[in-house]
Specification:
The complex is a heterodimer. Chain A is an all-beta fold. Chain A is about 0% helix and about 55% strand. Classes of the chains: A mainly beta, B mainly beta.
Chain lengths: ~110, ~120
């Protein structure tokens, strides 16, 4: 069965610093992968997605993610974070027509 | 395009009453919609898959008689929490998958905050 692991529950970075959020998936076939962001009390906003093709995917708000099949990873990156990036980030995989979410990583930004 | 709405955005009800939450795809048709539940500071958990014109498919551990799902049209699915109790208080989020295009992408609604007193 498919699964998603986000090993970091909390991450704290300084404003302006670079960011990498880790995501590992388990799925037998080629996965469809997503990163979502959720602000407190809000719904989900899609940052980016990978279906096929170029393994480096560009998203909104300056985020990018790289699909690495050999490592079963889909890590999210941003070169310079802004205070407004503080939120919960969820990695997700679609398999058998269902989205499976990771447990999320809470991003804290230091001024 | 691909906007999904939910109504209401928040609801407070007394224990023992039933609450209906609507999920609408505003600018596309959705044969399949999904209902998720999210507890505070936790991830989303899939409750059920709602298919237009047929019975919903519930995930293991979800009581189908308590969480009634109706997908009567290609743009509307409803979730009714029957005889709600305080432990049903949660954030309920729906998503919709386009009928056309064959994409596996789901589009999420803004969520409904349910508080049962």
């Amino acid at each position: 069965a498919q699964s998603v692991t986000q090993p970091d529950i909390h991450i704290t970075v300084s404003e302006g610093a670079s960011l990498e959020l880790r995501c590992n998936y388990s799925y037998g076939a080629t996965p469809y992968l997503f990163w979502y962001v959720q602000s407190p009390g809000q719904g989900l906003q899609l940052l980016l997605k990978y279906f096929s093709g170029d393994t480096l995917v560009q998203g909104i708000k300056g985020f990018e993610a790289e699909f690495k099949r050999s490592q079963s990873s889909f890590n999210l990156r941003k070169p310079s974070v802004h205070w407004s990036d503080a939120a919960e980030y969820f990695c997700a995989v679609v398999g058998d027509d269902k989205i499976i979410f990771g447990k999320g990583t809470r991003l804290h930004i230091l001024p | 395009g691909a906007v999904v709405s939910q109504h209401p955005s928040w609801v407070i009800c007394k224990s023992g009453t039933s609450v209906k939450i609507e999920c609408r795809s505003l600018d596309f048709q959705a044969t399949t919609m999904f209902w998720y539940r999210q507890f505070p500071k936790q991830s989303l958990m899939l409750m059920a898959t709602s298919n237009e014109g047929s019975k919903a498919t519930y995930e293991q551990g979800v009581e189908k008689d308590k969480f009634l799902i109706n997908h009567a049209s290609l743009t509307l699915s409803t979730l009714t929490v029957t005889s709600a109790h305080p432990e049903d208080s949660s954030f309920y989020i729906c998503s919709a998958k386009r009928t056309a295009g064959g994409s596996n992408e789901q589009f999420f609604g803004p969520g409904t905050r349910l508080t049962v007193l």
